[in-house]
């Protein structure tokens, strides 16, 4: 089985200015990941004083490119519950005791619409077809 993956760093590594699609075998990708995990587990690392994981994975980009990209994707996830708390608050305003029979998909849609309105992300009408 083959799948196509977009490699945004291919152009940077090769010196070209365009990105490319690379044909990758699912088995070879899994083998590459397992190989990189073994390298990571068997190597000893001298960590810096600040223990910044983003700096560590940037240093490992050449030797562990797949694990480095995975780690950088995980570290961009914000460790805050503010957004979910805000959405629960909005949902609580939409679904008071009198409206407790609303369908969950309907509530979700209204929360998304209200969030878009509050954040001024409301789409502008396109009258020119």
Automatic annotation (TrEMBL):
Q: Name one GO molecular function term.
A: protein dimerization activity
Q: Which residues form the HAT C-terminal dimerisation domain?
A: 49-116
Q: Which domain of life is it from?
A: Eukaryota
Q: Name one Pfam family in it.
A: Dimer_Tnp_hAT
InterPro entries this protein is in? HATC_C_dom, RNaseH-like_sf
- Name of the featured protein: HAT C-terminal dimerisation domain-containing protein
Q: What is the lineage of its organism?
A: Eukaryota, Metazoa, Spiralia, Gnathifera, Rotifera
């Amino acid at each position: 089985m083959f799948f196509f993956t977009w490699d945004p760093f291919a152009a940077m590594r090769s010196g070209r200015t365009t990105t490319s699609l690379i044909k990758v075998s699912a088995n070879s990708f899994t083998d590459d990941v397992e190989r990189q995990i073994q390298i990571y587990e068997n190597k000893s690392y001298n960590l810096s004083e600040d223990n910044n994981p983003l700096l560590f994975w940037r240093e490992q980009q050449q030797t562990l490119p797949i694990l480095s990209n995975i780690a950088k994707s995980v570290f961009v996830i914000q460790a805050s519950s503010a957004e979910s708390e805000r959405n629960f608050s909005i949902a609580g305003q939409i679904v008071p005791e009198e409206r407790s029979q609303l369908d969950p998909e309907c509530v979700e849609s209204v929360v998304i619409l209200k969030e878009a309105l509050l954040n001024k992300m409301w789409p502008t009408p396109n009258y020119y077809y």
